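Course assignment 3, question 2. Fill in each field.
Student: A.L.
Task: Predict the tertiary structure for the chain below.
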Amino acid sequence: MTFLSKAADGIVPGEIVRLDASRADEILDLESIVWSSRFPPELNRMNLESLDFSWAIGVQVPGAGGGRLAAFASAFSFDTPVPGGRVAVAGLTWVSVRPEFRRRGYLRALMARHFEDCREREVPVSMLFASKMAIYGRFGYGLGSVGARLRLPRGAALRELPGPAPEVELRFETASFEAHDGFVEAVDRQAGHGPAARPGWTGLVTPGLRQLLFVDEPPSDPRLERGRILMAWREGRPSGYALIRRDDGWEDGKPVGTATVRAFQAVDPASAHRMWRALLDLDLITTVVTPGLAPDDPLLQWLDEWRDARPLLIDGEHVRLVDLPAALEARRYAAPVDLRLAVRDRLLGHNQAVWRLEGGPDGAQATKASDFAADAADVVLDVRDLGSLYLGGRSAVSLADAGLLAERTPGAAASLARALRSDRDPGTAHIF
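Answer field:
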């Protein structure tokens, strides 16, 4: 696929190309320029090797040696929980354009090719974590999940769980891929495929991704010890893990160390409670920093005092519906729904239409009722905002209150909100 871009010095041809690991050095050079990488080359290469190159694409421009790589993107293939079901997701990652080639349409070309790849592979949904939120809203991605990062003081009080305390065995070790990969994979399998799986959960789907979980970043920082893992067993089965790094800060002869929890996963409340109690009681530590937690995470229910935790609201996964009817039919609905949705989609014309959504807890159908016409619908919204509703963590009523959803039939926004609701807030333990 060749296209023309407008550059300061005239029209420049660009070509979308498939990439494989043979061009690793070019990709790493591009990434180091774009992201000002401070990590050593071996760590950057490990990151690259974790990618699924079947999704890898780039923009090549004319130059010495047959062409120069101006932009790059890849993705992971996820089987992701959604309310009442699962859906194939492309986890878009490593999106980058060299500084000298910005504002020439190369990002737009990459995104168009990515959406075409999704359709060819019958993947209805694309998701990403955004380096800058405003960029991806232009391409139809809506904020589908939010999180809270906490800074907890050592000894923060947690509510006790009612009833007899189940026996949970804990072990604290130096983390390594070789020793602990199987344990992490066993816990993740339960967390992502059991009845309590969160919508939007994305697992460590390749050994390369799991290996990266154990890498200390930055390994050269003299204040940081080697990464540690806290493991939990319940009834002899792996039931949780936390990967942490600690520093050994001191002030006026007193410890002011920080323990940063890089990843936390537990499959039952007893294991999670026992693990957080242990993490909040580490010697020489005054502050425990959590990863991003879903708004309904158990830790937020157990804390006696939220204010001491200084919660910081962060954005999570951004969701793009590439095949709108297939995406809507992959999930289930908390209440009966029969609504006509007029969806704007200026990039993917096959989505822009009035869609009749009929369904409930047992399944759903999304059929095209007509071409786009606001007066033929119950609600009118942009595909970006439908993406933000898709995982069930946001409300159609709140979008209406913000003026981002137009209600043509009284009560339609509330009906859509009830139908899309999820029992659990969406989110994932692993950023990709």
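Instructor remarks: Residues 177-193 form the longest helix (17 residues). The chain has a mean pLDDT of 91.
Grade: pending
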